[in-house]
Amino acid sequence: MQNVKLTQMLLLIALLLPTISASLDIRMDLTHVDAAGNFTKFELVQRMALRSKARATRLLSTASDPISAADVPVFRGEGEYLIDLTIGTPPLPFSAILDTGSDLIWTQCKPCNQCFSQPTPLFDPSNSSSFSTLSCGSSLCKSLTNSDCQQQECVYYYLYGDKSSTSGVLSSETFTLGSQNKVAVPNLGFGCGVFQQGDFSNASGLVGFGRGPLSLVSQLGVTQFSYCFTSFNETISSTLLFGSPADLNSSTNIQIQTTSFIKNPLIPSFYYLSLNGITVGNTLLPIPKSAFALKQNGTGGFIIDSGTSVTQLNSDAYKVVKTAFLSQIKLPVANGSSVGVELDLCFALPSSAAAKVDVPKLVFHFEGADLELPRENYMIEDSGLMCLMMSEWSSDLPGSILGNFQQQNMRILYDLENNNLSFAPAQCDQL
User: Fold this and answer.
1) In angstroms, rounded to a whole number, what is the distance separating the alpha carbons of residues 412 and 421?
2) In this structure, what are the phi and psi dihedrals at residue 81, rounded to the nearest 5 degrees?
3) Buried (b) or exposed (e) across 183-201, using 16+ Cβ within 10 A?
4) Is the distance from CB of 28 to CB of 178 less than 8 angstroms?
5) What b/e string do you get for 23-48 counting C-beta neighbours within 10 Å, with b at 16 or more?
6) Cα–Cα distance for residue pair 268/76, rounded to 1 Å
7) Residue 233: CB partners within 8 Å, gap ≥ 6?
8) Strands 147-150, 224-228: parallel, antiparallel or unpaired by DSSP?
9) Cα atoms in the 13 Å half-sphere on the side-chain side of 293
10) Cβ-proximal residues to 289 (8 Å cutoff; 6+ apart), any chain
11) Residue 314 zone, left/alpha/beta (φ > 0; ψ -120 to 50; rest)
12) Across-strand partners of 99?
């Protein structure tokens, strides 16, 4: 009799396992934060550039002071892509910023002492049958950088260099993910924020995709995820994939490039890459590999980030890149501020639309992989101007960031199990 019961139990487990595995194969749509704004191309670029500067300040200042700095950004308008998901039982929809540069999942909750304006109703925990708070002894509470214990509940605090902050109770809730086939995921840890200072344009919170235990990907236990960003001035949604759908199709003729992540023990959440050099045109630029090296004190390095649009290069590297484009592009230098764009390097396009403009290729040489960018991924052309979508990070804080403008129409795979990043060209609006 016991053997029969054991057999029945094993059969039940076998039947459940595929369902659990399938639940991790998720497709979600991403919307650019400015998609509904009816902005011109250069207005979009200007907004992206300003957000990129604020975000670089947060990321690179965190890297310079990992002990006291916060993990979750609440800078004004910071972030580029929104995920639509629902929280609670019954489910309440909300839009959150996708952020590969942080871990914590959080949204604003009632009763809110101080909250920024958001497009969806505030989450009310008292209306959800699946809500619970997490104890101070929980493993997720212990993963927080700054926390407190109040009435046996885990209270989190994040304070930023620009005086922005978020605080609330670390909690557990059911989240429903997926754009088509909905998957309800119970018991996800998240921050129920009741006091915020800052602003999230068009968003109601944030979903961290970093490498720490608090992030969505860590809590789901997925071994890989990928995204494909459509062109920044299109209204077509981008794609985010979890699990087996995230795989890049190696059976096609498209060459898939793969490079390894570098781990920074002081900032374990960030996705660092080993950048060995940069080519402009046919010239491998005289930039020492040390310019992009991750230093022992946790500073420097080269981060790939979903929330920064304009790639930021440290001063030593950027000056060499700028000089190379100046010498190889045979056009007059122009001032982008004349059309409201604060990009450092712009050129005046010929008045004749038929005139051919040659632009040197741009290649990032990673360890084991070369990212050769199409022209539209590093040059923006409009209103008689052509500008380089890269900026100099001239702060005393060293470091560089690969932005999402350079990642457009690329399948980007984060292989967490094998500690690799892979990429291949794609038409993201056709996925």
Assistant:
1) 7
2) -125, 135
3) bebeebbbbbbbebbbebb
4) yes
5) bbbbbbbbbbbbbeeeeeebbbbbbb
6) 25
7) 41, 44
8) unpaired
9) 8
10) 276, 277
11) beta
12) 208
Q: What percent of the chain has pLDDT over 90?
A: 56
Model confidence pLDDT, tens digit, residues 389-425? 999 986 666 789 999 999 999 999 999 999 999 999 9
Task: Say if CB 25 and CB 244 are below 8 A apart.
Answer: yes
The string of pLDDT tens digits covering residues 225-272 is 999 999 888 888 999 999 989 998 755 567 899 999 999 988 888 999
Whole-number pLDDT of residue 12? 37
Residue pair 85/177 in contact by the 8 Å Cβ criterion: yes
Amino acid at 183: V
Q: Using H for helix, E for strand and C for coil, what is the string for the chain?
A: CHHHHHHHHHHHHHHHHHHHHHCCCCEEEEEECCCCCCCCHHHHHHHHHHHHHHHHHHHHHHHHCCCCCCCCCCCCCCCCEEEEEEECCCCEEEEEEEECCCCCCEEEECCCCECCCCCCCCECHHHCCCCEECECCCHHHHCCCCEEEECCEEEEEEECCCCCEEEEEEEEEEEEECCCCCEEEEEEEEEEEEEEECCCCCCCEEEECCCCCCCHHHHHCCCEEEEEECCCCCCCCEEEEECHHHCCCCCCCCCCEEEEEECCCCCCCCCEECEEEEEECCEECCCCHHHHCECCCCCECEEECCCCCCEEEEHHHHHHHHHHHHHHCCCCEECHHHHCCCCCCEEECCCCCCCCCCCCCEEEEECCEEEEECHHHCEEEECCEEEECEEEECCCCCCEEECCHHHECEEEEEECCCCEEEEEECCHHHC
Which residues belong to the active site? 99, 305
What is the rounded distance in angstroms from the CA atom of residue 331 to the CA atom of residue 389?
17
The token pair at 208 is 């961290």
CA-based end-to-end distance of the chain:
52
